[in-house]
Write a structure and sequence with these properties.
The chain is about 40% helix and about 20% strand. It is an alpha/beta fold. The strands form five sheets. Strands 5-4-3-6-7-8 form a six-stranded parallel sheet, with helices on both faces. A three-stranded antiparallel sheet has the order 9-12-13, with helices on one face. The longest helix is centred in the last third of the chain and has 20 residues. The structure holds nicotinamide-adenine-dinucleotide. The site of nicotinamide-adenine-dinucleotide (NAD) has 34 residues, from helix 1 and helix 3.
Length: about 325
C-alpha cells in the first residue's frame, strides 16, 4: 500500500480538517491503529490537535503501528494529501436538527474546501460535516473537482446502525448482516429492507413487518438518540469508523460497494444534487454508481429525500 510521491515511496497521507474534534481525532485514531496512512490533524484550535496527535503517536509502539500522526493549524502541513476528510464545523446540541447547522457549517466547509484544494489539488475529499448532503454539494461545487473525488459519509453510518440493530434483534453476528440504505442522511434516509440481509436472507423473511419498521425508525433517529444521551456533542465512534471504512476502500483500491453521498447526474432520476446511493469505492474514488430498480414507494421516498436536500441547496443558493 505504498504510494509514489515525487519519486520517493511514502505511505499514503490523510488529512483530517477538524482534527481536534470528536469525529476528527477518532478518525485519526482508527486510521493509525489500522496503519492505513500517515495522518495530519488540522484544526483552527491551537494545542488540542497537537496534543491529541502526540498522544496517538505515543500509543503507536503498544498498538504496533508505524503510522505517523501529528496536529497542526497550518495548511502547508497538509500539502500533498491523498485523502482529506472534512469534519470541521459545529455539531448538534440536544433539540437541534442537522439542518440547524446549515449556515454556520456552510461558511466553515466552503472556506476549508478552498484551502484544502489549494494545498492538495489531487486529493479525494471525504465530507462529514452536517447537514451532510448539502455540505457535500458545497464542497463539490467549491472544489471544482470531478464528482468522483468528492464523497459524503452518511450511508455507511446509517447502514452500520441498522446492521447493529438487526444483529441485536436476531442475536446473530454483525458480520452476517448487510443493510442497504439510500437517500439523505438521517431522518429522510431510505432503507431498503428487501435488500437488507442476514447471511443472504432478506430481513423481510426473518422479522415481522412491524419489527423491521421499528428498527428502521430507530436507525433514522439514531443520531438524535445519541445526542440526547450524551447531553453535549453528537456521535463520533461509529461516524469515525464509517470514515475509516471509506478511507480503507480507497487506499487499498478495494472496489467496495458502500452507500455514499455523491453528485447525481440523472441516476435514480435525480439531476444535479448530492444524495446517498450505492457506489463502488476504489483508488480513484467513486468508480461506479450502482443503480437498482426501485418500487414506486421506494422511489417516492427517495424523491422526498432528494427534495429535502434541494431545500437546503436553495437556501445556500448553490
Ligand atoms: N455525516 C455524519 O454521519 C456525521 C456524523 C457525526 C458528526 N457529523 C458532523 O461532523 C461535524 C464534526 O462533529 P464533531 O462531533 O467532531 O464536532 P466537534 O465540535 O467535536 O469538532 C469540530 C471541530 O471543527 C473545528 N473547526 C471549526 N471550524 C474550523 C475551521 N474553519 N477550520 C478547521 N477546523 C475547524 C473545531 O475547532 C472542532 O475541533 C459536525 O458538523 C457533525 O454534525 C456528521
Amino acid at each position: 500500500m505504498n504510494y509514489e510521491l515525487a519519486g520517493a515511496k511514502v505511505r499514503p497521507k490523510v488529512t483530517v480538517v477538524g482534527g481536534a474534534g470528536n469525529v476528527g481525532a477518532t478518525v485519526g485514531q482508527y486510521l493509525v491503529a489500522k496503519e492505513l496512512a500517515d495522518v495530519v490533524l488540522m484544526d483552527i484550535l491551537d494545542g488540542v490537535q497537537q496534543g491529541k496527535g502526540l498522544d496517538l503517536l505515543e500509543a503507536g509502539p503498544i498498538l504496533g503501528t508505524d503510522s505517523r500522526i501529528f496536529g497542526t493549524r497550518e495548511y502547508k502541513d497538509t500539502s500533498g494529501s491523498h485523502i482529506v476528510v472534512i469534519t470541521a464545523g459545529i455539531a448538534r446540541k440536544p433539540g437541534m436538527s442537522r439542518d440547524d447547522l446549515l449556515n454556520t457549517n456552510a461558511k466553515i466547509v466552503g472556506n476549508v474546501t478552498e484551502q484544502v484544494v489549494a494545498h492538495s489539488p489531487g486529493c479525494i475529499l471525504l465530507v462529514v460535516s452536517n447537514p451532510l448532503d448539502a455540505m457535500t454539494q458545497l464542497a463539490f461545487q467549491r472544489s471544482g473537482f470531478p464528482r468522483e473525488r468528492v464523497i459524503g459519509m452518511a450511508g455507511v453510518l446509517d447502514s452500520s446502525r441498522l446492521r447493529a440493530f438487526i444483529a441485536q434483534e436476531l442475536q446473530v453476528s454483525v458480520e452476517n448482516v448487510n443493510a442497504f440504505v439510500l437517500g439523505g442522511h438521517g431522518d429522510t434516509m431510505v432503507p431498503l429492507p428487501r435488500f437488507s440481509t442476514v447471511a443472504g436472507i432478506p430481513i423481510t423473511e426473518l422479522l415481522p413487518a412491524e419489527r423491521v419498521e421499528a428498527l428502521v425508525k430507530r436507525t433514522a433517529q439514531g443520531g438524535g438518540e445519541i445526542v440526547a444521551l450524551l447531553g453535549t456533542g453528537s456521535a463520533y465512534y461509529a461516524p469515525a469508523a464509517s470514515v475509516m471504512e471509506m478511507v480503507e476502500a480507497i487506499l487499498k483500491d478495494k472496489k467496495k460497494i458502500l452507500p455514499c453521498c455523491v453528485y447525481l447526474k440523472g441516476e435514480y432520476g435525480i439531476q444535479g444534487l448530492c444524495v446517498g446511493v450505492p457506489v463502488k469505492l476504489g483508488a480513484s474514488g467513486v468508480e461506479q454508481i450502482i443503480e437498482v430498480k426501485l418500487t414506486p414507494s421506494e422511489d417516492a421516498a427517495l424523491k422526498r429525500s432528494a427534495a429535502a436536500v434541494k431545500e437546503l441547496i436553495d437556501i445556500l443558493r448553490l
